[in-house]
Amino acid sequence: MKFLAITLIVHRPDPVTGLHKSTHDRFREVLDNAVLAEELGFDGFGVGERHERPFISSSPTVVLSHVAALTRRIRLFTAVTTLSLLDPVRAYEDYATLDHLSGGRLDLIIGKGNGSAQRELFHVTPEDQWDRNAESHQVFRQLWRQDKVTAKTRFRPELTDAEVWPRPYQRPVRVWHGSATSKESVDLAARHGDPLFSANVTNPIEPYAELIRYYRERWEHYGHDPADIAVGAGSAGTCVAPTSQEALAAYRPVFESNLAFFNKAGLPVVFETLEDFVERSSALIGSPQQVIDKVHRYHEQFGHTVVHLHADASGLTDTQHRDSLELFQSAVAPTLRKDIPDPPFDWGPVLPAEEATRV
After folding, report:
1. What is the Cα–Cα distance from 162 to 26, expressed in whole angstroms?
2. Is residue 359 pLDDT above 80, yes or no?
3. Distance between CA atoms of residues 192 and 277, nearest Å
4. How do residues 192-202 score in pLDDT, each as one tens digit?
């Protein structure tokens, strides 16, 4: 099993202390967390893409390029690249450049994005967002695979024998499809034989498990080998401590503050108590054995081989956050790596055979 640390770069006051870091300091924190993730042995570090409050992750390629310069081994993920909002040619140029600068360490998780504010910012409607996502994905795939691209498009000028530079480092980049509730995203992933990353954050396990079962059905429908399926899954929170009592005590102020925020903002509340949140959500909160058991329980329904943890402290103190990640890597990850297989592909750069032999 592989483990990612992911941040959406939320920029709002700390849910417990109320401290609101400057934008500059928040970005420095993201970079420090990326270096820490590599130091602790995580397999990937991911940065989201959002174009509305309270996020400052509108330029993941810029952030990940800086992370690439500070690290050497860890793979770099987008979480997610909102292709429904982007010109696929411009997105290709940015990500191909990042892939070269990182030495082929890039994986993309794509999705249509969410939130009415960012749809309005880019003049995308609820009715056309799925078509935009599919079209951008198709053009993006062609650009990564072909030296010259011709494409009839609805949402950007058509391409005729277009050459787009730089040509890629990875051939092609690995593209995961992020999905929270949508069968459209799942079907698109299955159709192209691409891996799936389930959001797995807001609700209990059932709706996510149903989508992953649908993905497996569609995968076989399109004629792909079931042995080649790769599924990743998110988690709703992270706090690993030597005992369950210590983990609950550390995370309770975080949960209660977030609950108050949701109630004040009129947002739906799925888990009304911390105990229910720990029991029925995907949050990895508890002793090492409890976290191992939780991941196994989800794996029984998902069959996933990649899981993400939160890269940010998110209300924990810096010491609590680091201690939690260190304990995860020392007491949880080794067991899960032994019990659950890796994805069915090489974790390194995806290169042509003649180049791969020289790496």
Report:
1. 39
2. no
3. 35
4. 999 999 999 99
What is the rounded (10 degree) CA torsion for 317, 320, 325, 331?
A: -170
Name the pairing type of β-strands 231-233 and 196-198.
parallel
CA distance 209 to 198: 9
Q: For residue 174, which of 130, 228, 227 has the smallest C-alpha distance?
A: 228
Give pLDDT, residue 182: 86
pLDDT band per the 50, 70, 90 thresholds, residue 115:
confident
Q: Which of 5-9, 26-30, 122-126, 249-253 has the lowest mean pLDDT?
A: 122-126
The alpha carbon of residue 163 and the mean position of all alpha carbons in its chain are separated, in whole angstroms, by: 30
CA distance 249 to 326: 18
Tell me the residue ranges of DSSP E strands in the chain.
Answer: 2-7, 44-47, 75-78, 81-82, 106-111, 149-151, 159-162, 174-179, 196-198, 231-233, 238-240, 284-286, 306-310
Q: 3-state class of 308 per DSSP? A: strand
Coarse DSSP helix, strand, coil percentages of the chain, rounded to the nearest 5 percent: 45, 15, 35
**H helix and E strand count, the chain:** 13, 13
* Helical axes 318-327 vs 23-40, angle rounded to 10°: 20
Integer Cα distance of 56 and 23 in angstroms: 8
pLDDT at position 156 is 96
The model carries a pTM of: 0.96
Q: What is the number of other CB atoms lying within 10 angstroms of the CB of residue 111?
A: 25
Q: Where are the alpha helices (DSSP H) in 82-238?
A: 88-101, 116-121, 129-145, 183-192, 205-221
Is the pLDDT at 355 greater than 60? The verdict is: no
